[in-house]
Amino acid sequence: MPRAWIAVACAAHVRLGRAEGFMQVCHGKAAPLRRIAPGDLVAYYSPTESLGGGDRLQAFTALGTVRSGAPYQPAAPAGFRPWRRDVDWWPGREAPIRPLLERLSFSSGDPRWGYRLRFGLFEVTQEDARLIAGAMEAACAVS
């Protein structure tokens, strides 16, 4: 059975990944991406609009299914070469996290719910994935 994940990145970076059909996490590290398998569902949570910005967003900003293939580094000039995975992104709208906090298993009743998000990528239940997909009005099937 495919697994479900929450990845964390600013909304500007998520939008770039949606436009180009990829995901990356943890400032481009490969190891977290190796935990994800083709067919897994990934929901992006964006705490802010821009990296390091004070422009709080706190919303789910993308939902998609990981394509086949291993993590890779795109061809680029010397310098920053992040690791990525290809993803089929589903149509949907951005959805604030606050209305879901009491229903998501990783946050329900926990005043420190944001702590898990600091890891950049973590697995969630299929029920959490369904709640997020519903809030995003995403056109996808979550098992």
Automatic annotation (TrEMBL):
InterPro entries: EVE_domain, PUA-like_sf, UPF0310. It comes from the Bacteria. Belongs to the UPF0310 family. Residues 5-133 form the EVE domain. SUPFAM superfamilies: PUA domain-like (SSF88697). This is UPF0310 protein EOD42_09565. It comes from Rhodovarius crocodyli. HAMAP family: UPF0310. It holds the Pfam family EVE. The lineage of its organism: Bacteria, Pseudomonadati, Pseudomonadota, Alphaproteobacteria, Acetobacterales.
